[in-house]
Input
Amino acid sequence: MITVTEILQPVEKDIEILLKDLRSLIGAGHPILQAAAEHLFSAGGKRLRPGIVLLISRAISKDGNLTEKHRRLAEITEMIHTASLVHDDVVDDASTRRGVPTVHSRFNHRVAVLAGDFLFAQASWHLANLDNLEVVKLLSRVIMDLADGEIKQGLNRYESDQSFEAYLEKSYCKTASLMANSCRAAGSLSGLNDDYLKLLHLFGKKLGLAFQVVDDILDFTGNEKQLGKPAASDLASGYLTAPVLYALEEKPSLSGLIEREFSREGDLENALNLVRESNAINKSRELAEKFAEESREALNWLPESPSRRALLELPEFVLSRLF
Output
């Protein structure tokens, strides 16, 4: 099975530079915020999102080289992603992420919220300094979408009558918007025409949606080590994802368990069994495969290069997490 490290190999040195630059960019803040931010960057993330920006940037570059603005865009992408994780952990009251204590469990909630705000503010400042209004709009939209997705998710807990469209919209906001808009922003910095910019956005959007659906399947089929959090934690929190929505179509009795918020003994276990007994996991897998294929097709126009080959492996990698 191919790993993220192998896929990102064409931009391995770029990612090393990115991490070094990020440490110096966030090093000018308050010592506690700096410590919180340092802790985030050392939590062993795969750097997938900035890696995608760097691969796109190299794949569309005429000479294969990166401009300073493309490097900075990748850094801003990672800052925004990391800031959103800190806030997510506070909202979800998660004590660990990828096996490392979360910022709020290491410091406190106030510091964690401020650390997330600090990173969003830093990202906005560096974004403004790119002096490209189109890119500012694209990445500002991401920050809006992240908050919007979190609010949508919070408001729709334990609501068994929510539509599949609402689930996809929330998934786009929380996961796919950053990939879609940062890919498009890389193209915008390179001066690509609107047709190519739309295809870059489509690639990021469909890859992000495939990624989210796979995550939602793993909530039912994965283990804690694989997930970085307890299995079935989304369902227990009342977040209804693709497998649950598909299962509700086959198993109407699931609705009652959800509506009473699994308040009786055995409710959550029964709900899990109903999802696993249905065809919901297979349907969700087919949906993820459809999104992955659509993301691949969106990049057919790219000229042959190591970066293009790496980008075309990403949809397959996203699906491979299921096996």
Observations:
- Residues 194-221 form the longest helix (28 residues).
